[in-house]
Specification:
membrane, alpha+beta, transmembrane helix, 9 strands, rod-shaped, transmembrane, Immunoglobulin-like, 2 domains, 5-stranded antiparallel β-sheet, 31% helix
């Protein structure tokens, strides 16, 4: 007794083709979504650079510039002087002042407070730490090779990076 096979109907072939096409469309849509997300993340990529800048008066400053695309939002900052972690740039300048037997607050200086949530816009450059006066600034410039800072920041899409001044960026503690 031979088994007779029923031929596949046209409706069944159309249903299989429609299902296959729908699965392919879903795969393409998911891939396009992934590419769009990657493009979106890459369109906002802040890049902080910390440098020593000497102005026309010979005063040295540590300057922070955002050379990337989009704002950099500060998470935390680590400042080291002679390998020791300090709570802020203020504490570093105070330690330097004390080393010079000038008292804790003997050096004239100013800073821009890079605190959690501080935003550095695209293309913005700011003087982070500047010691005023020729004598104090000369002491600061002499100490600069011993000052290292790591700035932790993120983009508006919460991607995280860090920038290092004077060092390789080996992190000791992150807030």
């Amino acid at each position: 007794m031979a088994i007779r096979r029923k031929p596949i109907s046209t409706d069944t072939i159309i249903a299989i083709a429609a299902t296959f096409t729908s699965i392919c469309a879903l795969i393409v849509t998911l891939y396009q979504t992934k590419l769009t997300r990657e493009q979106q993340l890459n369109s906002v990529w802040p890049y902080l650079i910390a440098n020593e800048i000497v102005d026309e008066n010979g005063l040295s400053s540590i300057t922070i510039a955002n050379s990337g695309i989009g704002p950099a939002i500060i998470d935390s900052v680590q400042v080291f002087y002679k390998g020791r972690l300090y709570r802020s740039p203020t504490a570093v300048v105070q330690a330097l002042s004390e080393e010079q037997q000038r008292g804790r607050d003997g050096m004239s200086w100013y800073q821009t407070a890079l605190e959690k949530g501080f935003v550095i816009s695209q293309g913005q450059s700011l003087n982070w730490i500047t010691v005023n006066g020729q004598t104090d600034n000369a002491l600061f410039r002499k100490a600069l090779p011993n000052i290292r800072a790591i700035i932790f920041y993120h983009s508006i899409y919460d991607e995280h990076w860090h920038s290092t001044f004077n060092g390789k960026g080996d992190v000791v503690v992150k807030d």
